[in-house]
Specification:
Layout (H helix, E strand, L loop, with lengths): L12 E8 L2 E4 L5 E4 L9 E7 L7 E7 L6 E7 L3 E9 L2 H10 L8 H21 L12 H6 L3
């Protein structure tokens, strides 16, 4: 399939996409709620380009559109602030360039490798969100876990 815009077809890389939690617990004992994160809006799509295996994948390097500027940014963030990890083919020249500039080797060559890591990261994110705070949730609570468990 040719797009007719160039001689070489666009390169495709596999990355792991995830969404930023809409609300996260914050403050002493996790009794406060904040929307999204300082850098990303809640619900924003980000691409995971690096996971730190030495720290049990507790922090990830991500590429996504910044909360304030709307331009792509690259930053490290806690795994617990992401959900719905999935393997996706990426064609965006900007995302691929930022991935290459970060020089972390996060573009997976096969779909199977990306899918395997996405499943593992989803399980870890749920675990980190449930064990991060030793106290009960505030009432009413709008954190990601409570929102996904509540009836529609």
């Amino acid at each position: 399939m040719s797009s007719g815009t160039g001689e070489n077809p666009a390169e495709q890389s596999w990355l792991i996409a995830a969404n930023v939690v809409r609300w996260r617990r914050y403050g002493e004992g996790g009794q406060e709620l904040r929307p999204g994160t300082k850098s990303y809006r809640g619900g924003s799509k980000v691409y995971v380009i690096e996971s730190y295996a030495g720290s049990a994948h507790e922090h990830l390097t991500t590429i996504g559109r910044g909360r304030h500027t709307g331009t792509y940014i690259t930053l490290d963030m806690a795994t617990r602030n992401l959900h719905t990890f999935r393997a996706v083919p990426v064609h965006s020249p900007t995302v691929l360039r930022l991935c290459e500039e970060a020089d972390v080797g996060g573009c997976w060559t096969t779909r199977a490798d990306a899918e395997e890591l996405a499943v593992r990261l989803e399980k870890l994110a749920v675990e980190y969100r449930t064990t991060d705070w030793a106290t009960a949730h505030p009432v009413p609570c709008r954190c990601h876990e409570c929102l996904t468990l509540s009836p529609v």
